[in-house]
């Protein structure tokens, strides 16, 4: 039976957009601009350590703690470089500002193959569409710069809502904005826990874009797995 779907919600990172280069490469380039030679692999490790600690301490980009996402990310960037041996405040502040700006644009993000075509086809079929992403409030601008924003009725981020996937409340807010019950909605994303399982937990349909590394796929029926975004409409309309 064809699914009676009216709303499609989308994850962004590694579903619609991806980073043009690894985080460590971007940070090494920002350091080079200040005359500092740092190894990208070491910066990558420092970044994930700093990002992990900040995420545990101040979830949802510090929204409940009076932090802006700009401050939140500034602290992550500075700590990343401190862990890599850079301690001069002026240089740290400059690199933090430059990186915050660069990650806000199409300079650091690219549209995944098939994403623009699939979104256009879904719009032509009359689906209402929205974004549900664990992202900060730069996402609207990034989607605009990458020429995808016009496909979506709404963009929900964890910074805006204060809830991060897999928290069901961010999906419930999306259903509310889309004006549909969960059984008439489907979420598309690449993460088993945050996207596939979380959307299903609130009663939505869900499709998992197959990242090569996921071992949990055993629990996902094959008809819910997307080898590529181009497979989506065939699965929905089957």
From TrEMBL:
- InterPro entries referenced in this protein's UniProt entry, alphabetically: HAD-like_hydrolase_domain (IPR051828), HAD-like_sf (IPR036412), HAD-SF_hydro_IA (IPR006439), HAD-SF_hydro_IA_REG-2-like (IPR011949), HAD-SF_hydro_IA_REG-2-like_cap (IPR044924), HAD_sf (IPR023214)
Pfam family of this protein, just one?
Answer: Hydrolase
Q: Which GO terms describe its cellular component?
A: nucleus
Spell out the family assignment given in the record's similarity comment.
Belongs to the HAD-like hydrolase superfamily.
Protein name (Swiss-Prot/TrEMBL): Haloacid dehalogenase-like hydrolase domain-containing protein 3
- Native organism: Anhinga rufa
Q: What is the lineage of its organism?
A: Eukaryota, Metazoa, Chordata, Craniata, Vertebrata
């Amino acid at each position: 039976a064809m699914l009676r779907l009216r709303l499609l919600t989308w994850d962004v990172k590694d579903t619609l957009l991806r980073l043009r280069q690894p985080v460590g490469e971007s940070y090494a380039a920002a350091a080079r601009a200040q005359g500092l030679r740092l190894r990208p692999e070491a910066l990558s490790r420092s970044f994930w350590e700093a990002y992990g600690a900040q995420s545990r301490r101040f979830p949802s980009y510090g929204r409940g703690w009076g932090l802006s996402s700009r401050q939140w990310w500034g602290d992550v960037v500075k700590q990343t470089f401190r862990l890599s041996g850079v301690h001069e405040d002026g240089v740290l502040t400059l690199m933090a500002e430059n990186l915050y700006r660069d990650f806000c644009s199409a300079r650091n993000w690219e549209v995944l193959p098939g994403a623009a075509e699939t979104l256009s086809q879904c719009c032509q079929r009359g689906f209402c569409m929205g974004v549900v992403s664990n992202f900060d409030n730069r996402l609207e601008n990034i989607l605009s710069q990458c020429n995808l924003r016009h496909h979506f009725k709404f963009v929900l981020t964890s910074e805006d809502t204060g809830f991060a996937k897999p928290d069901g409340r961010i999906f419930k807010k999306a259903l509310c904005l889309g004006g549909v019950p969960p059984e008439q909605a489907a979420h598309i994303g690449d993460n088993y826990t945050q996207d596939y399982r979380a959307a299903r937990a609130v009663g939505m349909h869900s499709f998992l874009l197959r990242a090569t590394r996921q071992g949990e796929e055993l629990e996902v029926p094959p008809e819910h797995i997307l080898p590529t975004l181009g497979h989506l409409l065939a699965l929905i309309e089957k």
